[in-house]
Input
Amino acid sequence: MSRPLLEVNDLKKYFPIKGGLLGGIKAQVHAVDGVSFHVSRGETLSLVGESGCGKSTVGRAILGLFDITAGQVVLDGKRIDQLSARVLRPLRRRMQVVFQDPFSSLNPRMKVRDIIAEPVRNFGLATSKADLEHKIRAVAELVRLPQDALGRWPHEFSGGQRQRIGIARALAAEPDLIICDEAVSALDVSVKAQIVNLLQELQKQLGLALLFISHDLAVVEHMTHRVAVMYLGRIVEMAPKREIFAAPRHPYTSALLSAVPVPEPATDRRRVVLKGDVPSPINLPSGCRFHTRCPYAFDRCRVEDPELRLSDKDHFVACHLQQPGLAGVAGVAVGQD
Amino acid sequence: MPDSLPLLEVVDLQTHFRTPDGINRAVDGVSFTVKAGETLAVVGESGCGKSVTAMSLLRLVPEPPGKIAGRILFQGRDLLALTEREMKAIRGKELSMIFQEPMTSLNPVLTIGFQLRETLRLHEKVDRRTAERRAIELLDLVGIPESRRRMSEYPHQLSGGMRQRVMIAIALACSPKLLIADEPTTALDVTIQAQILDLMTDLKRRIGAAIVLITHDLGVVAEVAERVMVMYAGRKVEEAPVADLFRAPKHPYTQGLLGAVPRLGASLLDAESKLLEIPGVVPSLKQRIVGCVFAGRCPHATDICREAMPALDVKAPNHIAACHHAATEPAAA
Output
């Protein structure tokens, strides 16, 4: 079996908080604290979780937008987290990103044509001027931008159209992987549906792998193959879509799913309302990070940090309740909704 | 007040803004009522005029460049006829509001306690000690732990969910008759949103305030509203009891909106499911739209839709929609 397109091994990213008289490091934000996963060719893996869980930091770390604290990022069998900018550059072409805010992620002083042309030129993908023009038009067509769009400025477009431009720019580099960081979160319902459908079609057509970072669980369920649920810098559960949404095993996943309001009135759902707020990633709770809000926490959870273990085929869970022998109990208690 | 009179009656509300390139008809002839104690949800996408409607009810639209016309009858009094001074006495007391972003609607340099006491003392003429005691009770009511200590804290020391609880406490301080909530949970994480929605439903039951809930989230609507009004391009296109609207939407826009929302569980049943798209974009509000506002994007549009504005007709019991082509259900026997 060939290696997955992207592997992330025990990734850590701490942000120092400077302070005090001498400006020393006072504390650290444990934004990402030991995260491992892989993304195969043509596959969508979604990273889900609430604000501050570290999902966006993971995306940025993979792209090399900052130095990581520890761990490895491996693209197509080659470790890329320690490479110099010059060596990394051709590899970076293979991973592109689409950001949340289509208003601030497009240069307002560049016409759409130039926005799409930039990656083609940067990575030397066009053999001639005619080829460049051909590539720009082909990409615009892929994302279904009208042909007259190329000569216009970003501000002339609505949010949905701008996101198409953002996707076109990513595709222009002919990537293998696109990291979508809340790429549809800012869009209105009807436009969101257009972009979600577009991403799915592009994936099928071009065999793209997607790392889909999102807090919108309904959209994730609609378009993903596998899901990794993050909480306070860790993955607490990772499994194929069906397993996560139909039979979640971690109490946090269950609570998260049950908190999503469903557009069907008078459905009598049992909702697990979590008490309290997410603890600070500066002073992490002892033991399991979720024990302060977990309705099933027992003594062991307060002292011992559970590892992410294989609990069933392709289904990983970090919870003491999922220990062999106890699995049945937790399955009944947690995964019933 | 007799039962027959609604708490709030809005008649032909028009809120227009003068801009350098023409008049923006943000709200263009919207009428609706809210009964005492009921929750009306106003849904629609960005730019449909739902937030401007909320701001108009409170008369918080800057004039000029804005201009509000029509009638807003609150407990029988036309709010648009009141002086600013009279309006101030109502705002925050009988008519209260919660906004989307609690960080910008709380004053960052005043303590939570100060902001709660201020509201109480302004409207209820109570002494300092009573205000202090009532403020702590309010924080307890909205589920803020260690309420006494929180009184001396500043907004930035609280999490987003806690700040929204404080906003709700301030909004409820004077037992309002009507609470206007503009996207109250949009900025919050789902688990926190669930807490706040539960809190709002629970408090509504206890205090008996009516709520006008402005939101784009159809899931939130389904969970808390009793009646729903759908807006598109500054106009009301449909209104119905919540169950009827979700079960049998009449307006093609509402149908499109409901089809475009991914639902948890749906893709597990049908692997090839595709989300419904509404083609095109919202029309500019700066040109007067002749005919139906949705005609340009509607799959059923015909000539009449482009020529005549459809009236809001009764299509089923308690169910109105502005569409030339929506069928009328015979009244249930």
